[in-house]
Design goal:
With 376 residues, this protein is α+β, with helices and mostly antiparallel strands. Helix content is 37%, strand content 26%. The protein is built from 12 helices and 14 strands. Strands 1, 2, 3, 4, 5, 6, 7, 8, 9, 10, 11, 12, 13 and 14 form a 14-stranded mixed beta sheet that branches. Strand 11, helix 11 and strand 12 form a beta-alpha-beta unit. Helix 7 packs across helix 8 and helix 9 packs antiparallel against helix 10. 38% of the residues are buried.
Length: 376
């Protein structure tokens, strides 16, 4: 056709909208892809909305042939992460591409040039601005429905990267669990003894407002403390905490948030589960209006699949069995709501502590995702 592919750095809001919508087109009617919400994605790139942009630089590139979009990539320089880990790395994210290795090569080339101009030495991803953005490329489980907290990609993505010399940096694994009909008496007794021994109790809130106001900051303090040792984790600052309280705690079902607290009301254990939004997001096709939100409300009310969205246990209390307090609080609620299956969301393959949490529920390892890295 004689048309040339060009790589273009995006600069306008109109181009950003096209950038954000690209995967919704690329995966149109795909049975396992869960589209993100367009306004959420736009907000992520808006410095007035996303506090991570105070310490991150970002550039977004698209590959085009005439008017046709062939791929996209965002390249992110997270200065806090580089300082913390004493490295000169950039991250790539929002990477989507048609099945043409040349397009991937051109996009990665543009990202690497941008990085080298800033004195960087390696590129890795897919990652976001911070650890609460979706990360990790699917390398196993292409025939499994995604969750709204994870990325989905075609099987050719990892092949393209490996052809370019990218190699594994770290893997996450995900499990599916059958919600047990009932937990043994023994399990409840153990949880009770544990609560007495450490003087702890499990609380949940009546409303999302109460949850955000009373426990929002404490929840993220716990996540900062308990995730501190995990791969690439950079503690959230105060502005980010406020941002994520608004973003996440506004749409959870408060009764599916189990908080383990000390007598001083300090949160030392946390489980947040969310009725699966995957099918609702698929029906919404990236839009809340006019009907997207109706699909979400239905999913919250009636569902047989639940996502374990966040789990955290304070380092002081790890390996003491605190998860039993969370599960004895949550599982009866799962049964009452008719949830039959639970998804764990990604956990590091080396994180044997979190994997041990599921061991007695017969977990099935059904997805793996990877961060790739390459020196530039």
């Amino acid at each position: 056709n004689g048309r040339q592919m060009e790589i273009k750095k995006i600069s306008t809001q109109k181009e950003l909208k096209e950038f954000v919508r690209f995967p919704i087109k690329l995966y149109k009617d795909h049975p396992y892809f869960v589209p993100p919400l367009i306004f959420d994605e736009l907000n992520t790139f808006n410095p007035a909305k996303n506090p991570a942009l105070e310490f991150c630089e970002v550039a977004c590139f698209v590959a085009k042939e005439g008017k046709t979009l062939l791929g996209r990539i965002a390249v992110i320089l997270n200065k806090e992460a580089n300082k913390r880990f004493d490295e000169k790395h950039v991250r790539f994210g929002w990477f989507d591409v048609v099945d043409n290795p040349e397009v991937t090569e051109a996009l990665m080339g543009a990202a690497a040039d941008w990085a080298r101009q800033r004195g960087m030495e390696a590129i890795k991803g897919p990652m976001g601005f911070c650890d609460f953005d979706n990360e990790g490329m699917l390398i196993h489980g292409f025939d499994q429905l995604g969750t709204f907290a994870t990325l989905y990609n075609y099987p050719y993505y990892p092949q393209h990267l490996e052809q370019l010399g990218f190699r594994k940096e770290v893997d996450w694994v995900e499990f599916q669990i059958d919600v047990p009909e009932e937990l043994s008496e023994r399990y409840f007794r153990f949880a009770e003894l544990l609560a007495q021994k450490f003087d702890l109790k499990v609380v949940s809130c009546k409303s999302t407002r109460e949850l955000a106001k009373r426990y929002g900051k404490k929840i993220f303090q716990l996540l900062n403390d308990s995730y501190d040792v995990l791969y690439g984790y950079v503690p959230l600052n105060e502005k980010q905490v406020d941002y994520y309280i608004k973003l996440y705690l506004s749409f959870v079902r408060p009764e599916l948030v189990s908080l383990v607290v000390t007598p001083e009301d300090r949160v030392v254990g946390l489980g947040i589960a969310i009725p699966s939004m995957s099918k609702a997001f698929q029906k919404a096709k990236g839009k809340l209006l006019p009907f997207g939100f109706i699909h979400m409300l239905k999913a919250i009310r009636k569902n047989d699949l639940v996502d374990f969205y966040l789990m955290g246990i304070h380092p002081e209390y790890q390996s003491k069995g605190l998860n039993s307090l969370i599960f004895t609080d949550m599982l009866p609620k799962f049964q009452k709501n008719g949830y039959r299956l639970a998804e764990t969301n990604p956990e590091l393959e080396t994180n044997s502590r979190i994997q041990a949490l599921w061991s007695e529920f017969g977990p099935r390892h059904h997805k793996t995702r990877r961060i790739y890295i390459k020196e530039i």
